[in-house]
Amino acid sequence: MMKAFLRLTLCLLLIISFISSTEGQKVKAVDNVQIIKNSKKPKPPPDIPSKVSLELECVIGESDDPDKSFTEISNFVVDDSETLYALDFKDCKIKVFDAAGQFVRSFGEKGQGPGELDMPAGIHLTPANELIVEDAIARKLVHFSLEGTYIRHVSLADRMALVNLIMGPGGNFMGREMKLEGQKVFFEIEKLDPELKPLFLLDQIEFAIPIPGSGTKINLMDMLSIYQFDSSGNIYYSRNIDYEIKVYTPDGRQVKSIQKEYEAQKITEKDIEEILERIPNVGSFNVKEMFEFPKTFPPLQFFTLDEEGRIFVRTWEKGKDKGEYIFDVFDPEGRYIAQFISKVDIRVWKEGKIYSYEENEEGFKVIKRYKVHWDR
Questions:
Q1: Rounded-to-integer distance, Cα 15 and Cα 139, Å
Q2: Which of 292, 240, 296 is nearest to 266 (CA)?
Q3: Residues 339-352: tens digit of each pLDDT
Q4: How confident is the model at residue 151 (pLDDT cuts 50, 70, 90)?
Q5: Share of the chain above pLDDT 90, in %
Q6: Beta strands 84-88 and 73-78: pairing type?
Q7: Mean pLDDT across the stretch 310-325?
Q8: Which of 326, 373, 376, 366 is nearest to 63 (CA)?
């Protein structure tokens, strides 16, 4: 029962990883924290580029050959030569593509032995040019060379569930760990060193225990939180209750709060159906019956930082075409500077380019690379 519960909880964690004023900004300081308040429709600061356009450069994984295309991508990374390493969740493989988008090789296989993967949830490129794959069910980190040779694995058997890892400068991590305290269950958002030893706790989120048949309902939207590193190791974090991104120094001291007024977006029955369609059942559990939904979406879907420290926030406000959403863009100071509508699902920034996981016109999953252009 515990193993089934753990598998269910890990799947929930992965699901969490996958869902009018015209004034400008007001800045003040409270207890040494700079607070930047952006109004609902702020004017960008003068004399800086405020128009974003995306130029499609390459489509990756668009093939009739299943070995050269994707079934379900959980994550991917890109090295300095623009070689892309995509972790295919269902195939339990890492699929490699060159800078032109051409398939090079794949490696990895289903299993729990050395170099094998059971539930691959994330992939990371280390400063030493090794690939680290998170295996959520086997509770280990599997190290490969860039050529696909198995090197070693690090056991996480002493942790109940540590997932949704992101790697920052120097090989440190941010992650989401499940903890039990009496009858309470928490997600703890924490910073960890390269050996995954906790450095400090950033946030703690309590949630109901999803025991099948108990009638317990889980509000997925209430559990969402987003965290990112910038190039200096500062941490950007949103609990996603309010439109607020908190900025912390590498040692965990809050120095900034970036806020914006927004119009809450209603959750329709169609929205709920589309969300539930993307959620798999776990064994004999009907996971979909365990969820409840609020009347409105949270402020943010996710945010990413480009290499210059600008923040790209995908909101829940929709465009005209299916899959389009409005992005708010903030400069490194936290001031709103631009807005654009796009279907992009930004996963990686590299040399002024974004890599997005999308559907093509035939409905197949592909990775697209775009060049980002700025104009005044």
A1: 17
A2: 296
A3: 999 999 999 999 99
A4: very high
A5: 58
A6: antiparallel
A7: 94
A8: 366
